[in-house]
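User: I'm putting together notes for a lab meeting next week and I want to include a structural view of one of the chains we've been expressing. I don't have a solved structure, so I'd like a prediction I can at least talk through. The sequence is below, exactly as it appears in our construct file.
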Amino acid sequence: MKIPLWGVISVAGAGIMCLITIWFNLQALTMAVQDLQITVKSGNGSVQALVSETALLKFRLGAVEADVDRLNDLARDKKPRAAK
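Assistant: Thanks for the context. Below is the predicted structure for the 84-residue chain, given as structure tokens.
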């Protein structure tokens, strides 16, 4: 059984072309994953900043509510001045 040379060359060429295509697709995928990692890291930093701002706002709101409650208690307990 003889295999013609044109058949061997065609199959080898097709195989090499497939390998080259896979190589370049893998390189493009690697670059896309690296860009995605950078985006995710910057997003995580933004989330951390928002979480810290939210915690600070909750603390300040708690302090303001405590002051309002204290002032309301003082206003309720205050007796009107006696008229002269």
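A couple of points you could mention at the meeting. Residues 55 and 61 are 10 Å apart (CA to CA). The chain has a mean pLDDT of 90.

User: Perfect, that's what I needed.
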